[in-house]
Specification:
The structure is a homodimer of 125-residue chains. A three-stranded antiparallel β-sheet of chain A has the order 1-3-2. Chain A has 125 residues and is of the alpha+beta class. Chain A has helices at residues 14-18, 28-40, 44-55, 63-66, 74-86, 105-115, and strands at 60-62, 90-95, 98-103. In chain A, helix 3 (44-55) packs across helix 5 (74-86). Chain A has a single domain (14-114), classed as Winged helix-like DNA-binding domain superfamily/Winged helix DNA-binding domain (Arc Repressor Mutant, subunit A), CATH 1.10.10.10. In chain A, a hairpin with a 2-residue loop joins strand 2 and strand 3 (98-103). Chain A contains six helices and three strands, in the order αααβααββα. Chains A and B meet through helix 2, helix 3 and helix 6 of A and helix 2, helix 3 and helix 6 of B. The structure holds a DNA duplex (30 and 30 nucleotides).
DNA sequence: CCATCGCATAGACAGATGTCAATATAGACG
DNA sequence: CGTCTATATTGACATCTGTCTATGCGATGG
């Protein structure tokens, strides 16, 4: 499999890495890069998958733990996991019969920092 | 803009309701709700729009300030602004001939908190 | 009152996306 | 080897999305 791939992070300009996007305008390339990650988060099933994986005991979960809670088919879950993997939000590894997934906290942290709002003064009017 | 951080965060219910999604599994309804906001963030043009608006002087921007930096047509910008508005990420108001947009920091803060990773300690495995 | 400017809406269209059933693959276990 | 279990891949399909051109609508100014 291809769980060794580390897609992004660090290749783009430094500003996109940590600075809140409400401070200075996002560059075009950084926006394209970030949009891919947010797109991976833009589906309810994927959000719940990510949440399930991250909050699972040991910080990782077998796929067999992930198919139960959803109304969609197993191939659909597999597809969503692939999307999360290709977005760089999770990694996976096969151990015997099962495949385990875990989140990459640094990537979530990067997105979190990006959305941080400095308690703006521009508020309601 | 002098008083930034002070006791009463203006977010009230919205912020209190959402602990990091890596702590406990996201509910089905919450996931649907949040996915809508992330979907609004899942386009490079919208990300840059949001960033432009937030980082603009005074925390707000006229549409006429927003059409220039992009390669897409004015109706497309208008469409993206509508998406951001319907997702609850920005608000708008007409003043004379112009329409001004500003971000809702509490909503961004909610998303940011949701993605916060707990110390990211273990990290790569 | 009419022309003009700023922005939004409507309609059309190609391409992306979420889903499923069917099938393939990879390891475990007789 | 054959079979079973756990995941992934394929292909099909309806729906959603981003974009454009054309047009509408409110406000301004002669």
């Amino acid at each position: 499999m291809s769980n060794l791939q580390l897609p992004v992070l660090g290749q783009d300009d430094a500003a996109a890495c940590c600075s809140p996007m409400v401070r200075e305008p996002l560059g075009e390339d950084a926006a394209v890069d970030l949009a891919k990650m947010f797109k991976a988060l833009s589906d309810p099933v994927r959000l719940r998958l990510l949440s399930l994986i991250a909050s699972h005991e040991g910080g990782e979960a077998c796929v067999c733990d992930l198919t139960g809670p959803f109304d969609v088919s197993q191939p659909t879950i597999s597809h969503h996991l692939k999307v999360l993997r290709e977005a760089g939000l999770v990694c996976s590894e096969r151990r015997g019969t099962w495949v385990y997934y875990w989140v990459l906290p640094a990537v979530l942290a990067r997105l979190s920092a990006l959305l941080e709002a400095p308690a703006a003064a521009g508020g309601a009017r």
